[in-house]
Amino acid sequence: MSRASKGDKLLSDLGYKLGQTLGEGSYSKVRVATSAKYKGPLAIKMVDRRRAPRDFVEKFLPRELSILRGIRHPHIVRVYEFIEVCNGTLYIVMEAASTDLLQMVQQAGKLPCAPEARDIFAQVVGAVRYLHDRHLVHRDLKCENVLLTSDGRRAKLTDFGFGKESRGYPELSTTYCGSAAYASPEVLMGIPYDPKKYDIWSLGVMLYVMITGCMPFDDTHIHSMPCRQKKGVMFPEDLPCLSEPCKALIRQLLQFTPESRPGVGLVSKNSWLKGGEA
């Protein structure tokens, strides 16, 4: 019996019924599942530690598991169970969602600033504030890492593979993390960075994508991105109806200098985000 078949049998013996594969990488995959033990749809992430890079197994995976074991927040994906087996595979059982924010934006083209984009973004900001208040950072915030319920109204932050403990400046990070399109200038330039301010930049990119349906900076040539980022964010001219308070918030988040970006606590108090402005 193959390793995968043994794993399927183990999960079956534990009461899990496996469904279709949601996604698959070089050393992990995610499958839909159901179980009488937990209500609602589940997703089981299967990580083959024998095939994964040593750095991932020894550093990033333990960090992710530590974070997932210790957090409980309505807008962070809930993990129900960790199953470790002798064949080197780790199974992470978590709640599943109907779609993610990227798929939602792609299907709609773009989201209205209010209430759709504002309400979803406020939930993500709440999740990031919860993390930062506990000296945890995500370092891979992007639309595809925000899961959504079937009605598109409830958001859940997921994928903590690059997460770590950090108290922010002057405690700096040096590891390149995340996707280039969402990466801050200092990360792209390879200089030590404040991971909390990196998260803030990525939030700005996420909000821009939500309301415009496109990226704020062309990532075709990564080495030249910081030059474009330094010039400041521009908004499509064919979208004159964009909310000015929303655009102002994006400009604050996408400040080239990390020190000029607000902390997440200040972001959460933004008048547009709280519904005080259209």
UniProtKB/TrEMBL annotation:
The lineage of its organism: Eukaryota, Metazoa, Chordata, Craniata, Vertebrata. Belongs to the protein kinase superfamily. CAMK Ser/Thr protein kinase family. PROSITE patterns: PROTEIN_KINASE_ATP (PS00107), PROTEIN_KINASE_DOM (PS50011), PROTEIN_KINASE_ST (PS00108). It comes from Pantherophis guttatus. This is Testis-specific serine/threonine-protein kinase 6. Pfam families: Pkinase. Its EC number is 2.7.11.1. Gene3D superfamilies: Transferase(Phosphotransferase) domain 1. GO terms for molecular function: ATP binding; magnesium ion binding; tau-protein kinase activity. ATP binds at K45. Keywords: ATP-binding, Cell projection, Cilium, Cytoplasm, Cytoskeleton, Developmental protein, Differentiation, Flagellum, Kinase, Magnesium, Metal-binding, Nucleotide-binding, Nucleus, Phosphoprotein, Serine/threonine-protein kinase, Spermatogenesis, Transferase, Ubl conjugation. Its main location: cytoplasm.
